[in-house]
Structure formats: structure tokens, C-alpha cells
Amino acid sequence: MATTNHPTSDSAKLSISSAIKPDRFIIYTSPPSALRLSHDIPSDSLTATICESEKTRASIIKNSTSAIRSFFSISKVSPNRLIYVTAGLAFDAASPKPFGGPKTHPGYAEFEGTTVASLLHYLVEASFKRYWTYRGREALDFVVRCVNQARELQYAGNADVLNELMLKGMKKAGHIPWNALVTIPEALRHRQETRSDAAISEVHFTPRLSPSKRPV
After folding, report:
1. Residue ranges per domain, the chain?
2. Is 85:161 a contact under the CB 8 Å cutoff?
3. Residue 39, Cα to own-chain centre: how many angstroms?
4. pLDDT tens digits, residue range 13-54?
């Protein structure tokens, strides 16, 4: 019995093959670089740096969360306030995974903690797990940017912007109701500050005196 072959154009084959994207399994022969969040003193910023490879993942997360708390403790406000501000910056559907995603169920909706400590732990752990699983640093670098931006906003001194971000972080973390009137607790209120003289010091050059104006 003869079999009739229906001709398929090259363009049709191309469209079918391009529409089917099979899962790709990548096997790495070496582990990812061991990174840790730390306070870089020269730049006065939080950075992701290479640490000793023998450190456990649990210790990396613990040391990274401690670094963020220490970084925030330099400010006059409570570190808890800046952690909520960081969450307000990070918890958005447009953020990279694992925090972003569909508006109906973004990644940050997976967070179920009830304390500030659990919120900070989630921000750090989720970004590191993403890095360890996929090797992409996008989530890790995103959290670093949010932490640095939170402290920069604190030094900029715009209390209204900071309060809005803090309340946004508290609401999206599920720590306060969305529609309730909220009075900011004393411990989380804004405190004005400026950078230390060392952080904003500038080099001033004394103009050279002309011979006629030099002291004798």
C-alpha cells in the first residue's frame, strides 16, 4: 500500500521547531564560585565578594545577613526600618526571579515569615538559592542594589519616600494589613542624618601665591 507523503515547507518546519523548546539540562563539572555579601569599606557599599570555598551555604547566608545588618547599623535609624525599605524596593512583580513574576502571584508571595529577621533571611536565602541553582547573579546583584539604595535614600533624607517604601515592604511582607490606617512605631520612624565627614570629604587645593603675595 502506497503511503502519501504530504510535503512540508521549510518555513513550516522552522516554525514548529522554534515553537518547541525542550528542557535543557546542563551538567557543570565545577561548583559555582563561593560568594558572600560583605561591607566594602573603601566604597562604603554592600558587595558580593568571593569567599573561602570551604564555607557551608548555611554560614554564607548567616554571614551575609549579618553583613547587611551591620551595614544598616551605621545609620541613625533602626536597621529594621531599612530592611523593610529594602523589601519595598525588591517586592515587585517586575523584579527578577525569585521575587518577581505574574502580578497575580509574584515570587515574593512565597514569603510567609512574621518577623523582620525572617524577612531579611528570606531576601538573602532566596537570592543565593537562585544563584546556586542557575549560576546567574541577577537576583543576588539585585538584592545588593536594593540594600545600597535603601541606605542611599536614608542619607538623602526624604522621609516621605522612605516611609512609603517601608510601609510597602511591610504590607507586601504581610506584616501589616493593606487597607488599615497605620501609625509608624517610634522604633521605625525616620531620623535625619548626614554622611560622616570621612565619607564626603573632599580634597581642597590651596592656590599658589604669586611672588608679590608670598609672605616674607
Report:
1. 35-186
2. no
3. 14
4. 444 333 434 434 454 445 567 899 999 999 999 999 998 766
